[in-house]
Amino acid sequence: MTDALDESIGRRTALRMKYCDVEGKETIREIEPLALVFYWQSWFVYSWCRLRKAHRCFRIARICSLEAIESKREGPPIDLSERPWMKEWEGDQIEKIAFAADASTRGRIAEYFEEDSISVMEDGRLLVKEVFPTGDWVASWIMGLPGTVSILYPEHLKEKIRSRAAELADKNR
């Protein structure tokens, strides 16, 4: 996938892709890839989206299929040195979070959190305190950690995880 995107960027060509958004809805889009971007442990392609007539970031893992199309670029010129894709993430809610997790999670936690935000508690569990995005994906990520995790704050993140856990338990009786 990344090879085809990288080739399209280099050759300045367009692609047709089937894309599955975060809610599972699939769309067919024609894009003009401009840059590959690594952000929050995920790869994205920053592109001109012909469907939306706007520059957009697409998570590469959500691209179901790609095909080259013979078409000239239509998107407006843009200065990539200004990292325009960062504007898409400026709206993410970022706040102080704290949670305790089993020591076995250290490797995964270290992928997202700086060492100075991780400490070891008396019982051997890890205490993580950091300013971090608190969108839906964070609850999913925390729930995917092995062992037990205790959210200390914020309360709405604790409630979101409680609610999801109850829903999962209910659907798997």
UniProtKB/TrEMBL annotation:
PROSITE patterns: WYL (PS52050). Pfam families: WCX (PF25583), WYL (PF13280). Residues 102-169 form the WCX domain. Residues 3-67 form the WYL domain. This is WYL domain-containing protein. InterPro entries: CBASS_pafABC_assoc_protein (IPR051534), WCX_dom (IPR057727), WYL_dom (IPR026881). Coiled coil: none annotated. PANTHER family: PROTEIN PAFC, PTHR34580.
